[in-house]
Amino acid sequence: MKAVELLSLLGVIALLVEIFNFKKLLFPIVILGLIGTIAVAVKDWNTNIHYYNDMLNFDNYAIVFTVLIVVIALFWFGIFNNYFEERTNLTDHFALALFSILGAVIMVSYSNMTMLFLGIEILSLPLYVLAGSRKTSTASNEASFKYFLMGSFATGFLLFGIALIYGVTMSFDLPTIGMFVANHINNLPGLFYVGMLMMLVGLAFKVSAVPFHFWVPDVYDGAPTAITTFMATIVKTAGFAAFFRLFYECFSLLGVTWHDLLWIMIALTIILGNITAIYQKSVKRMLAYSSIAHAGYMLLAILAMNKISAGAILYYAAAYSMATIIAFAALQIVSEKQNSENYDAFDGLNKKNPLLAFVLAISMLSLSGIPPMSGFFGKYYLFTAAFTSNYKWITLIAISGSLISIGYYFRLIIAAYFKKSSDDTVIGISTLQKIILIAATLVVLLLGIFPDLIIRLPLL
Fold first, then answer.
1. How far is C-alpha 271 from the geometric centre of its chain's CA atoms?
2. Is 360 exposed, middle or buried (CB count within 10 Å of its CB: 0-12, 13-18, 19+)?
3. What is the pTM of this model?
C-alpha cells in the first residue's frame, strides 16, 4: 500500500516541478523515490495486508513483482535518462512514466476485478501518449494511434468479460469468485464461461499472444526506443503477473475449458514469433517479434498452473527484462550514431565500443537460452513446469522455438564481432550508461549462477 502511495506522490511531484522550478532535482528525486518504494515494499514481506476494502492485497506475490517492476524502472530511468533530457516536456514525460509504473504495481497486487481494470488503464493511458511522444515522426504518431485503438479493443473484451462474471457471481472479489466456482463446479451457467474466455482474450491482447499480437511490431517499431523498452519489460511483467493471479485464484478449477485454447495460442505464439523474427532486417522489429515469442514461453506457466509456475514467471520476467533492457539500450546507442536500426549498423561494434559489444552479446546469449545465462534457467523452469504437468508436445514446440531463436540472436553477435564496418568511428557512451549496462549484465549473469535466489521464494 505504501508503495502505491509513494509512486502516486512521485507522479504528483513530477507534475509540480514546472510550478516550483526544480527540474534539475527531478531525476535524483525519482531515483530516491523508487529506491524508497522498494524499501517499503520489502518491509511488508509476509504480512499479507489487504487495503481499500480488500481490493488490493500486498501478499508476497504482489511484493516480489512490485520490487521487480520498480527495479526494472530504476534501470530504465538510468539507461534512457537522455530521453528525458532531450525533451522540452520533461516533467510530463516523467509523470506519465511514473503513473504507468503505478498502474503496473496495481496490476500485480489487485484482489478485485475493479482494481485490475483500473491498473490496466492507469498503466496504458500514459503509454498511449508516450508512444507518440516524437511529435514530428509519422511512425511514432501511427504507433500511438494503433496502440490506443488496439488497447481500447482489448479493454472492451476485458470489461465485457468482467461484467458477465459479475452477473453470475455477483462479486468482483477474486477469492469470492474462486469460492463460487468451487461450489458450483458442475453447474456453472454458460455466461460464466463466455466471460472467462473474454477475459482471456483481453489479457492475451495485453501480453501480445497470437492471434492478438498484430499491434506489437508496428507499435514497438514506431514508438521511441525508450518507450518500446518500457512496454517490452515493465508492461509485459505486469501483464503476466495479473494474468497468472486471475487464473490461479478464479479459474484454475476450470482448466479443462481453457487449456486447449491456451495450448493452441502458445504454440502459435512461439512458432510465429520466432519464425517471423528471422526474416526481419530491422533489429527493433526483430526484438518486437522475439518479445511475442517470449510471451509464448511465459504462457507455459499459466497453462501448467502448478507449484513452480509463479516462481517460473517471476524468474523469467526478471531474466528477460534485464537482457531486453541491455538489447534496446545498445540499439538506441548504435542507431543514434549510425542513423540506422538494421543489422548492418552493428557491424564491427567490438572495435567501436568493446564494452557495448560485450554486454550486447551477453544479452543475446541470455535471450536465446544459452547456459549459464539466466535466460537458460528461465526457459528451463518454464519448460519443466509444462512438462511435469504432462504438456509434453507444447514443451517440445517451445524447445524447437528456442532453437530457432538462436539464428536471429546470434546474427547480432556475428555482426558485432566478425563483420567489418566501413566506418570505424568510436561509439561513446556516458558514464551512467556504462554503469547501468554493467549492472544489468551482472544481474543477468548472477541470476544464472544463483537461480534459487528467486525461484524458491514463497509466493503463494
1. 20
2. buried
3. 0.95
